[in-house]
Design a protein that fits this description.
heterodimer, A: 151 residues, alpha/beta, five-stranded parallel β-sheet, 5 strands, globular, B: 469 residues, 19% strand
């Protein structure tokens, strides 16, 4: 166990993450609306030791009721449409919506038209667009920090 | 391989006879032959041979085989929901993909004085894919779970219909990032099988390298996920960093962290010179040293390891009955791995690794993954010994209207069936390791405590995207 903690500390020193100098924080809630799981895999690493978004006061919260930002992935399937709207309705205001990944942005959308509603912006007002298939953890982190900086 | 269509009685007899001869159920889907509805069942032998048997729907009805092979349960429910075929004898035929139904139709009735239901999802509390679980519990004790997936159904198979076979690959493989290479290779193999093509040694090597690169990051990711399920943040963090390293290596070799675009029908464009393979081997060696060191830390962490024995058991008998595949099957002592019977890939001499403690619980599934990581790195080290050049498949056998591919994904056997209409896709079916194993998650959870479900679920670490398509 001590080896594990020592290795993690060494890793942190090697990466040399810059000190977090941003005021404020953002609570994020993720809703998967039919992604290929690529965006989720990379979003998970944003909370990992190499980027550690929590340093900037950004964290994934368990309920949309605690969230400032809704991070939506996938092309919005017909079966997730209602759940997405419910999650959005549950958020306190002011609230922001981020479309994460090319599917959510409607770029190169694949699927049968009857099963897919369309890009996130056809359903909700989108404030932040994070392109990529999937966007890298670095891309996701930089985009989210912009959202703090622009607030 | 026959392409004739049986009547109901002959179909059932043929499938029952094949199962008695040691063949196993591999896949079932609804299709059409001359515009008439047909159900096609794929069977596999222990030696890796594949065959398919079709039955014509008479008045929209075919006989069920779910009493012969329980693993066909989801396939028949899906065929009913998507193609309207009814299965005589499959009672009750609960909806699977169809969501416009009342609760009583998809949930299993659980009656008695105390049971109540807990509904979870489709939106979960973490960064997790969407799906719904309905727990029937008494206190903290799980009696039964209804897993209701397909919230992510995008109709990818239908979207591929009518496309040239090569263009179907990006559509079908959009199913899943975690198993992109597996699904792509299975699709490419199915197309090449239909065209009578066989891979050259160089093409087989390219695909095997890609498949094992995918297995490396998935295995590290699965170990991180189990640490998260237990609540050991240090383990989750350490293995997450290793996952990042593995994906960075993927991007270095192919230009994409999940290896998207690295597989195509009929050939491979992957070109790795001497410097690239040398660098890859060095990085993989570093990954081996660091992951072994981290794994030892977990192994000797008593409070971590004590959390897992006896939880979420799927034993060998359940593996056979439910048609469980991959790590989950091997952790119960069932030595099955498609890599051992893959003449189209470069796995000569491969034998599945088994634990001494084959208990089929969460601990066994974790240890099985750790056990399989080293041989996987060995395979990569050997295959990356020389530079890799672009390669193409060559004509080998006769052309067929239907081709089948079968590949071992990080989650188990994945089958892809491609029915072609000349050079275009008539029907494609992708049945992934996740699809095979979801019923086992529900089975494993029963009689366990509700707070153990996340850990049990993580110990399978199945894709929702792969199952939903």
């Amino acid at each position: 166990m001590l080896t594990l903690l020592r290795d993690l500390r060494k890793l942190r020193r090697q990466i040399g993450l810059p000190a977090a100098r941003r005021p404020g924080s953002l609570a994020l809630r993720h809703v998967d609306c039919g992604s290929c799981n690529g965006c989720e895999h990379e979003l998970t690493l944003v909370s990992g030791p190499t980027i550690d978004l929590a340093r900037y006061g950004l964290g994934i919260v368990a309920s949309p009721r605690h969230a400032d930002v809704l991070l939506v992935t996938g092309p919005v399937t017909t079966r997730m449409h209602a759940a997405l709207l419910t999650a959005y309705e549950a958020m306190p205001e002011p609230r922001r919506v981020a479309a994460l990944g090319d599917c959510a942005l409607g770029r190169g959308l694949l699927g049968t038209p009857t099963e897919v509603v369309g890009p996130v912006e056809s359903v909700l007002p989108v404030d932040l667009r994070i392109a990529g298939c999937p966007p890298t953890p670095q891309d996701i982190a930089e985009a989210l920090l912009q959202l703090i900086d622009s607030a | 391989m026959s392409t004739s269509v049986h009547t109901g009685d002959v179909y059932r007899e043929t499938v029952a006879g094949a199962l008695a001869d040691g063949w196993r159920f591999a896949s079932l889907h609804a299709t059409t032959v001359a515009d008439r509805p047909v159900i096609r069942t794929v069977l596999s032998s222990p030696e890796g041979d594949l065959r398919h048997e079709a039955v014509a729907a008479s008045g929209g009805v075919v006989p069920t085989i779910v009493d012969l092979a329980a693993a066909a349960g989801w396939d028949e429910r899906e065929a009913h929901d998507l193609a309207g075929v009814r299965f005589d004898g499959h009672e009750p035929l609960r909806p699977l993909v169809d969501h416009d139904v009342p609760l009583a139709q998809f949930a299993t009735p659980v009656r008695g004085p105390d049971p109540y239901q807990i509904a979870v999802g489709p939106v979960h509390a973490g960064v997790i894919e969407s799906g719904h679980f309905r727990f029937h519990v008494v206190g903290d004790l799980i009696l039964h779970v209804d897993a209701r997936l397909f919230y992510k159904h995008r109709g990818l198979e239908r979207a591929a219909e009518g496309l040239p076979l090569a263009d179907g690959l990006p559509v079908v493989t959009r199913a899943c990032a975690g198993c992109w290479v597996t699904n792509a290779v299975a699709y490419a193999q199915a197309c090449e099988d239909a065209f009578g093509l066989a891979p050259t040694r160089e093409l087989a090597r390219a695909r095997t390298i890609l498949l094992e690169l995918e297995r490396v990051w998935n295995t590290l990711n699965d170990i991180a996920a189990i640490c998260a399920g237990v609540g050991l943040a240090a383990g989750t963090s350490r293995f997450a960093a290793l996952v990042d390293d593995a994906r960075t290596l993927n991007a270095h070799l192919t230009g994409h962290r999940f290896l998207f675009g690295s597989v195509r029908v009929g050939g491979s464009a992957l070109d790795l010179d001497a410097a690239a393979v040398k660098e890859a081997r060095a990085r993989l060696e570093r990954l081996r040293a660091e992951s072994s060191r981290a794994w030892k830390s977990l192994l000797f962490n008593g409070s971590f390891m004590d959390r897992m024995p006896g939880i979420g058991v799927v034993d060998a008998e359940a593996v056979r009955t439910l048609g469980v595949v991959g790590v989950a099957a091997r952790a119960a002592g069932v030595a099955e791995d498609v890599r051992a019977t893959s003449p189209r890939l470069a796995y000569e001499g491969f034998e599945p690794a088994l634990l001494r403690r084959r208990t089929g619980d969460v601990q066994a599934r974790l240890e099985q993954r750790a056990l399989e990581l080293l041989p996987c790195l060995d395979i990569l080290d050997a295959l990356l010994a020389t530079p890799l050049r672009p390669a193409a498949a060559t004509a080998a056998t006769v052309e067929k209207p239907i081709g089948i591919g079968r590949v071992e994904s990080p989650r188990g056997a994945t089958v892809c069936v491609v029915e072609r209409d000349g050079g275009t896709v008539h029907r494609v079916r992708l049945r992934t390791g996740s699809y095979s194993n979801w019923p086992a998650v529900a089975f494993a959870a029963a009689t366990n405590l509700l707070p153990d479900f996340p850990l049990i679920n993580k110990s399978f670490e199945l894709c929702y995207a792969c199952a939903d398509r």
